[in-house]
Amino acid sequence: MDPAWLKSKRKEFKSWMTDEDRRMGLDRAITAYRAAREYALATLPELEQIRKEVRKIKERSIESMQDLVKGAMENIELVHGHAYLAKDAKGARRIFSKLVGEDKLVVKSKSLVSDEILLNELLEEQGNRVYETDLGEFIIQLRKEKPTHLLNPAVHVPKEEVAKTFSKLVGRRVGADIPTLVGVAREFLRDKFCTADVGITGANVVAANTGTLFVIENEGNARFVSNAPPVHICVTGIDKVVPTLSDAFKVVQVLPPYATGILMSAYVSMITSPSRTADIEKTLVYGAHGPKELHVIFMDNGRTEMFKDPVFREALYCLRCGGCMYECPVYRVLGGSFGHNYFGGIGIIWSAFTAGEENAAAAADACTKCAKCKETCPVDIDVPKMVEHLKQRLIRKGYLAPKHEEIKKSILKKGHPFGQ
Amino acid sequence: MSGKILYWRGCMSRLRTKSIADATEELLRRLGIEYETLDDEGCCGSVLLRTGQVEDAKTVAKRTADHIKSKGYREVVTSCPGCFRTMSSEYHVLVGDVPFRVRHISQFLFDHSKELKQHLKPIKVKVVYHDPCHLGRHMGVYKEPRELVKLVPGVELVEFKYNRGKSICCGSGGGVHSVFPEIALEVAKTVLNDRPEGVDIIITSCPFCNYNFKEVGGSKVEVIDLPEFLLRAWRES
After folding, report:
1. What's the pLDDT at B1?
2. Nearest partner of B50 among B134, B168, B130, judged by Cα
3. Are residues B145 and B217 in the same domain?
4. Quick check: A411 and B14 CB within 8 A?
């Protein structure tokens, strides 16, 4: 008999494996991604060298993570931004709660860190209206589903289903033609951007020496979100800070080809302060055409814990390109059920530290430790080693699958795992 | 006893996929290799390591290392890439240095290629080789199994689109097959479906892959282990 932590997850796994629509959507995405990435890596041979440099940058950065965050925060404050350090999800929720307040219109671009703190639920509870503006996130939000991939959250929803969802949204029949669907989102969200009180983004990388946030995207929604509303709040992990702008540019070069197979993203925004001008009498005023206020929240939420263990420390090198997931044989059949708030092999580790170990126990048993993710990772993270290491910890806390216990008993007694 | 080779069959080939051990022994005999097997073979510890049961893995690894040591074997050959990886690359961490060398059967047979070749008759067949994760990605053995397949005249060896370091796991590794057999099978299906067109045989050199692929059933392709394939091509004189 399955204990509760296995039972619920087995059910979730099964519902994914047997959902032909979702499997088809995912298969299409995997095929497209692999071809695109192959092309990108062949077109940019210098990436092979740059990704190795990025590995070194991440090693150095994580080693001095606390100091870098402190430096970044000081530099943000120097140019009239506000910086905060949130120890955990609860701390971050408190900060958001105060900054956003009630009855506001909020637009968001994709942020995985905001999912760690269940931000949308919090803001809605406080009577705010929240719109996800990344197309994939927007679809997921409307369908009240869970995202299934870091960068492509609606990867499992075929166009026919998107058409149904959008038809309901705009109250007329929308055809299952992809450009039309994109057009519907564009039209619907446009005035939300311009009338929103608050814009919330994440950051892909932060340069400590200038306090500069880098936001990488293709749709142009993050530019609107971080620029049109009077208040911009950025929430990011303390693992995202690197020492210098040059270091950050290296990360920026690696992310798009590995993440989506494109040579470079359509937009990379660098944000260092609230908008400002000194055009009248050389007097500096904050709040010009862009936001009047910039708030940056650095989230710990388990990252310092990760740092303390030399095996798990490597997980902090993850750039969140998500390429490993497209290559994972188990993700291909389990999709968004393979993990909790982060997915795939690396997602098992991140889920354990940011959402609680109980949420990672079953997925750790579903990982074949095949190392395809390690082979694919631009910064060579040894994920299978970490999953085995995590499993050791979990077992000490009682998360040992009955089948694995039977195997152990049989091996110790009979010298083979098969019982009888 | 010393100087003789220990053929370590491993739990799968010993008890679940016996045809692998039988074929391997037959091949070793025909090649005139002096080898022995252990009746009380025990466990290498691989499965325990992969499922996070490291203390128990250490216990059985020590037992096994002492056992092999006490019999004086200097050379161990395994059918299972899991045994191979664990004994050759992880024992030094688990139990300290061991006085025997461990190789996978594909590496061992590769060194006997010249002799093998003399005995192999042509088979007209299209085959694909599936890289097991423990043998390939984890241990870097890609060349030897392929060279062995190519020893058989008439064989057309083709590749999966994703092969060698990019090969796709059969789905049964890491203890997944025991806790989630439904996932292991579903993954195996994706690999089988992605096989190159017109392939008659999928050759693996891992009993776990072999067992998992066969369990999918209903597939129009035969799945066999590398030594089984070589034995099939052996010319009866």
Report:
1. 47
2. B134
3. yes
4. no
Q: Domain A47-304 - what CATH class?
A: alpha beta
B33-43 average pLDDT score: 96
CB pair distance less than 8 Å for A13 and B182: yes
Give Cα B35 distance to the centre of its chain. 17
Contact assessment for residue A366 and residue B180, using Cβ atoms and an 8 Å cutoff: yes
Share of chain B above pLDDT 70, in %: 99
Asked if the Cβ–Cβ distance from A368 to B187 is below 8 Å, we say yes
Question: Which of B41, B171, B191 has its CB closest to that of A415?
Answer: B41
Domain range summary for chain A, segments of one domain joined by +: 4-43+322-414, 47-304
Show the CA angle centred on residue A320, arms to residues A316 and A322, nearest 5°: 130
Q: Give the residue carrying structure tokens 């020590």.
A: B62
Cβ contact, residue pair B56, A411, below 8 Å: yes
Sign of CA dihedral A162, A168, A169, A173: positive
Q: Is B74 found in the same domain as B24? A: yes
Residue ranges of alpha helices (H) inside A133-244 are: 135-143, 159-170, 178-195, 221-227
Condensed to tens digits (0 to 9), the pLDDT of residues A37-63 reads: 999 999 999 999 999 999 999 999 999
* Chain B residue numbers touching A416 (CB-CB < 8 A): 11, 14-15, 43
Lowest mean pLDDT across A143-152, A391-400, B23-32, B111-120: A143-152
Domain of B210 in residue numbering reads as: 115-233
Measured distance CA(B142)–CA(B163) in Å, rounded: 9
Which positions in chain B touch A330 (Cβ < 8 Å)?
A: 169, 171, 176, 183, 187
CATH of the domain at B14: 3.40.50.1860
Same domain flag for B53 and B125? no
Q: What is the mean pLDDT of chain B?
A: 96
Beta-carbon pairs below 8 A across chains A and B: 135
Q: What is the ipTM of this complex?
A: 0.95
pLDDT tens by residue, B158-201: 999 999 999 999 999 999 999 999 999 999 999 999 999 999 99
